[in-house]
Design brief:
This protein has two domains: 1-40; 41-91, Irregular (HU Protein, Chain A). The longest helix has 20 residues, at 18-37. Helix content is 42%, strand content 30%. The chain is elongated. The strands form two sheets. A three-stranded antiparallel beta sheet has the order 1-2-5. Strands 3-4 form a two-stranded antiparallel ribbon. It has helices at residues 3-13, 18-37, 83-89; strands at residues 42-44, 48-55, 58-61, 68-71, 74-81. By secondary structure, it is α+β, with helices and mostly antiparallel strands. β3 (58-61) and β4 form a beta hairpin. It contains three helices and five strands.
């Protein structure tokens, strides 16, 4: 399922127009992204949670040349599956 499929499913399940359903889906994903950008955790009970993991700078190596390289600190989003979703998938 992709974003368009989700929009169509929302449209079919509610009395929203396609553009209204698209606006709701966009709002949902934009707010999730904004929360993660602020460093907040996003939790959807029974489904999943998203959080940002912070990595410190470290000394790495360029795989092409073998030269040492400094890797900057970074933040990456992570997904953690919820218990109910695990049970549903593993029915």
């Amino acid at each position: 399922m992709n974003k368009l499929d989700l929009t169509v499913a929302l449209k079919n399940e509610t009395e929203l127009t396609k553009s209204e359903a698209a606006a709701v889906v966009d709002l949902f994903f934009n707010e999730m992204a904004n929360s993660l950008a602020r460093g907040d955790r996003v939790e959807i009970r029974g489904l999943c949670s998203f959080y940002v993991k912070k990595y410190k700078a470290y000394a790495g190596r360029n795989p092409r040349t073998g030269e040492p390289a400094r890797v900057k600190p970074k933040k990456l989003p992570f997904f953690k599956c919820g218990k109910e979703l695990k049970e549903r998938v593993n029915f």
